[in-house]
Write a structure and sequence with these properties.
- This protein is an alpha+beta fold and about 350 residues long.
- It has two domains: about 5-120, Rieske [2Fe-2S] iron-sulphur domain (Rieske Iron-sulfur Protein, 3-layer Sandwich), CATH 2.102.10; about 125-345, Naphthalene 1,2-dioxygenase Alpha Subunit, Chain A, domain 1.
- The chain is about 20% helix and about 30% strand.
- It has five helices and 17 strands.
- The chain has a seven-stranded antiparallel β-sheet, with helices on one face. Strands 5-6-7-8 form a four-stranded antiparallel β-sheet, with no helix packed on it.
- Helix 1 packs antiparallel against helix 5 (about 325-345).
- The longest helix has about 30 residues, at about 280-310.
Length: about 350
């Protein structure tokens, strides 16, 4: 069961081509993405209403898409506008069209009740297209349920064990985070960790222009269904980072991790690691990107193996530990939203 009435990511902007089409399964639904003649992204049900043929095997004709099984033609609203061999098109000959917004280089899609879709609810990821930041967009396909990925992201203790040579330091397993919960809207978790007078993780060492111990931070803002924004960095010890002062020498990053369920046991994952220093160094952008990919592959190996085990005994419960506080609150917020949608549907 998935949350329906919220904004999900369907693609990076560069994934939806100017001329071709992109087929993607989202929340167990086949979706077709393409750009109209004005460059605006269109999202349609990727299933012809006639015989169920996938429309991504069809072709674009202006702003429309033609099914190449029996030739039905659909406009961006999903309405069939032509049926070869008959002069009239019944009004019910249509497919579903989804609300879509392109913002901060992400293509956002609303899979639920279109009348409730409010673009103002889309989270801000300004570092994706701000001239003050640089990043390279990334995508991973997971053979795992999206909530297992969320669990991993909000569990800092695993950094010491899964990422000993990339993201982790020994202190990662011991330090307890500060967790704050905002119940407005769908809810937001803010999870903060400060490592004072600590070693830099290897990913930071690769790009830092200073040596020695640091005061470093990881401040997560996570919102249902699966949207993570992170402020992270390292600053030389004693230069005021915990009090809000970030000296020019400090490393500052903004991180994006967003998941959209594909099916119950597969997921889409969009990510990037943006920085606000050495903006003209394309080789540094690539270096940071590859370092993040290396760490995320460590996560994926563990999570996909975890999913295989869970598939064997799906009803066996987890046993909690103290480090689960953040991820347990995230699951509570997801369950809260699911329950609200169920109550609303029953009322209607």
């Amino acid at each position: 069961m998935f949350i329906q009435n919220c904004w999900y990511v369907a693609a990076w902007d560069i994934e939806v081509p100017e001329e071709g089409m992109l087929a993607r399964t989202l929340l167990n639904q086949p979706v077709l993405l393409y750009r109209d003649t004005q460059g605006k992204v269109v999202a349609l049900e990727n299933r012809c209403c006639h015989r169920g043929a996938p429309l991504h095997l069809g072709r674009k004709e202006g702003d429309c898409v033609r099914c190449m099984y029996h030739g039905l033609k659909f406009d961006p609203s999903g309405q069939c506008v032509e049926v070869p061999g008959q002069s009239q098109v019944p009004p019910k000959t249509r497919i579903r069209s989804y609300p879509v917004v392109e913002r901060n280089r992400l293509v956002w899609i609303w899979m639920g009740n279109a009348e409730t879709a409010n673009p103002d609810d889309i989270l801000d990821y300004f570092w994706h297209d701000s001239p003050q930041w640089r990043m390279k967009p990334g995508y991973i396909h997971y053979q795992a349920n999206y909530q297992l990925i969320i669990d991993n992201l909000l569990d800092f203790s695993h950094l010491a064990w899964v990422h000993p040579t990339t993201l982790g330091t020994e202190s990662a397993a011991e330090l307890r985070p500060k967790i704050e919960r905002d119940m407005n809207g769908n809810g937001t978790l803010t999870i903060s960790r400060w490592y004072l007078d600590d070693e830099m993780p290897n990913l930071h060492k690769k790009v830092a222009q200073f040596n020695g111990k640091v005061d470093r931070w990881q401040i997560y803002q996570w919102s249902p269904p699966a949207c993570l924004r992170m402020d992270a960095g390292s600053s030389p010890v004693g230069t005021g980072a915990p009090e809000g002062t970030r000296v020019p020498l400090a490393l500052q990053f903004r991180h994006t991790s967003i998941q959209t369920p594909e099916t119950e046991n597969t997921s889409h994952y969009w990510f990037c690691q943006a920085r606000n220093f050495e903006l003209d160094d394309d080789s540094l952008t690539e270096k940071i990107y590859q370092s993040v990919v290396e760490a995320f592959e460590e996560d994926r190996t563990m999570i996909e193996a975890q999913q295989k085990i869970l598939n064997l005994t799906p009803d066996r419960p987890f046993l909690p530990i103290a480090a689960d506080a953040g991820l347990n609150q995230a699951r509570w917020l997801i369950d809260r939203k699911l329950a609200h949608e169920a109550d609303t549907e029953n009322t209607n």
